[in-house]
Amino acid sequence: MKIILAPMDGLTDVYARELLTGIGGYDLCVTEFLRVTDTLFPTRVFHRRFPELKNNLNQPGFTKSGTPVFLQLLGSDHSAMADNAAKAIELGAIGIDLNFGCPSKTVNKSDGGASLLKYPERINQIVSAVRCSVPTNIPVTAKMRLGFDDQSLAHENAIAIQNGGADWVTIHARTKKDGYRPPAYWDALAPISDFLEIPVIANGEIWNVDDYFKCKDHSACDSVMLGRGAMVTPDLALQIKKTLNNETIAALSWQEVVQILENLYWLMSNNPKLKERYIAPRLKLWVKWLMPTYTQAEEIFTQLKLINNAHQAIELIKRSQ
Ligand SMILES: Cc1cc2nc3c(=O)[nH]c(=O)nc-3n(C[C@H](O)[C@H](O)[C@H](O)COP(=O)(O)O)c2cc1C
After folding, report:
1. Superfamily of domain 254-319, CATH level 4
2. Would you say the pTM of this structure is higher than 0.85?
3. Which of 155, 240, 273, 309 has the smallest C-beta neighbourhood within 10 Å, fewest atoms?
């Protein structure tokens, strides 16, 4: 049973990956997508999207707490995808995930992400090309939605991924057309996971421990990927793991969450390459995500959203304890 931290562009960056895996419960993270066109990226592009490759020289490709991180590639040019995957592995990446689920109009217009779900044979070509370009001991995985407009090609796409040589497939239990609107169609995953030989990881709408168990019952998948729920409840993965072990766990207090936000502030402030103006918005964004779980987050947000100075923002957050 694995819990994977979802790739979320603009949310699960290197800092969130470090902090969330530091809390515990996660077996793996996936980077935000790196969009491949027809060129081979220079090393600095890989390092920007995946700083764990260079920051953690003892264990490149792992977060500071030792959780493995896979690089996610998004694109439709199979040979460019293969070349970039091979380069990432040369740079120390320990796994490659392929994105067949991004609903963004810009990405879909340029023939990437979820738009490929209309063409299972192209998905198969991309997975096969990437599989061939990286050593056999390196996992290649894929993340898909149930379909583009409807679920009619869900099986074909999952089979295309399996036949391309992927080690597992994560399925976000919605179509591109469904966007992020609840519900997630967990039931639709059960026949796919039953049919495939590779593991299926369920994803979508797991906000608390109860949702995990409901998703598991409906999807017949033990392993899950947590997305927005991880931002809203930073110890969600740990809560699920402890519950599975029949252990009790007190949810993180607001004081502990403030400590996490303070760590976020220090991690960002200590990066000389990070512009000061990036820090306050990042703190505000996470506090906003925390609002459904913590009333204190809700109480400070009106004031916090007006602050642009990072130091002032963290001081306000600290005073809320
Ligand atoms: C802001 C945001 C950015 C996302 N970026 C990515 C991405 O880079 N790659 C990807 O495969 N999925 C991306 N996703 C989709 C998530 O990984 C996940 O599939 C989706 O949020 C459903 O899971 P959830 O209901 O647990 O949030 C993103 C989702 C959000 C909300």
Report:
1. Dihydrouridine synthase, C-terminal recognition domain (1.20.225.30)
2. yes
3. 273
